[in-house]
Hints:
- The protein is an alpha/beta fold.
- It has 23 helices and 9 strands.
- Strand 1 and strand 2 (69-70) form a beta hairpin.
Amino acid sequence: MNVMKNALGALMRFADARPRIFLAALALLAALPGISAIPPLDRDESRFAQATKQMLETGDFIEIRFQDEARNKKPVGIYWLQAASVMAFGHVENGRVEAGIWAWRVPSVIGAVIAVLFCFQAGLILFGHRTALWGAALFAVTALMVGEAHIAKTDAVLAACITAMMAALARVFMDHRKQLRAPAATAFLFWAALGTGLLVKGPVAFMVAGFAIAWLAIREKGARWLMALRPLWGVPLALLIVAPWAIAITIETDGAFWTEAIFGDLAPKLAGGQEKHWGPPGYYLATFFIMFFPGTLLILPAVRHAWQQRKNDAIIFLIAWIVPGFLVFEAIPTKLPHYVLPLYPAFALLIADFLVRPRGPELSGLRRANIALWLLIALAFAAAITLLPAYMGQGPGIPDYVLTVILAALAMLAALLAAMREDRKALATAGVMALALYAAATMRSVHLVDSIQISSRVAAALHAEYPDGLPPVATAGFSEPSLVFLTATTTRLGRGTNAAAFLAETQDGVVAAESRRQEEFLAECARLGVAVESFGEVRGVNYSRGDNTVITLYRRKSGT
């Protein structure tokens, strides 16, 4: 009898786990293609990866540095996660680090999976099983989420932290509405996720949750219900996660980390468009149809439906999650697409509620406009599989045309189903189209490496010329951090005059000179009396700047 009960209990637990297994598999299906084949990306990913590499080389896990420069911008959390991944999947010994870039990307993939699972959990709390499953599945294949899962930096992990926080807050809010008190485990999840989020990307996690809490507190005309979060021990828990490193970095840098992080990074983003990343109010609204693809197929009818249901407790919570954060991000002058990623689970659940909840007649004109705009974007994505190789000078092949036709057919089928109000079939088809698009784009980007990944080709040329170990390397004009990551921490990035001085000082040194700095480099070499010879050339497109580039490899002539 006990055996039967145990077997039945195990079967029921497996049944409960099945949707989570499916969602985790879906997130991995979207995130894993290309994770090892796509070379290190410039510039943020390579800076993060190189800083982590230097931690492993030096054994200093407190200070964050890119070469000799202190990287006092973001806290240490993502670097620790990347370091743990590289130690698990790579080889670290005596200050030497050997691992493919995919090892640095593993935390982002795991972050994406966790974010999807907590989106499902939030959906269960707010709506129920079907809505939760649809919403989490939609979030898993969203273009921005998939993109961030492929990049070794903070945002996929931050999305996981914030989604976990918001799932916990949803439980507290919904229990409050039922006149219940959320369990202590919910409070633990909230504060642990907040502390981890603070350690990964500073105040962003606090901002998103804080805006939602403020919105709900105003609407509820009080905040006593928040006592279910147990702040008396929850706040110390969050601080306990952050404090050891915060104290250590303060001592290590004599407080310089906080001065530079606040006044050199955060304040400029609030005051103006930092690093040329300025955007006008409305930027995130204008790019939403692209970044939230394919879920935007029905976003306008879903928003109208949410407005009609605005007195529903779950919709009240989603509005608090989305609206104040979205308005603040739109108001901040510095804008990058990934800033609003922590709001995307709420959008996904909002659309899922539209799919599942019974509803009355819709404004057909709104639906038609939505479908037309979505189809235009989907067909543009499909066409890019053929047009991008042509733009890069490699020319499309038959597989590109076939992929474009398949993607276009899936997009048109999804649009047709949406027009026929077969909404679930439409979004399922759009999701399949999106997964196929990501896989096709990944395959094509790998084949385009010869054109757009100059650092990989320069590093490959150097390794081919010096198979027993690279000599000291410097650059003249080419300053992409991926070259440092792919060669050595000691690689010097500089101008032509600096590179010439480097060769004058370094008998066995090598210089990678960009065409726009080549004349300056050669003139300075002549002035210093350094005779040089070229031994290789790399041509391609520097996608960070968007221009054609020629890199010539130089060394001192034999005997000089």
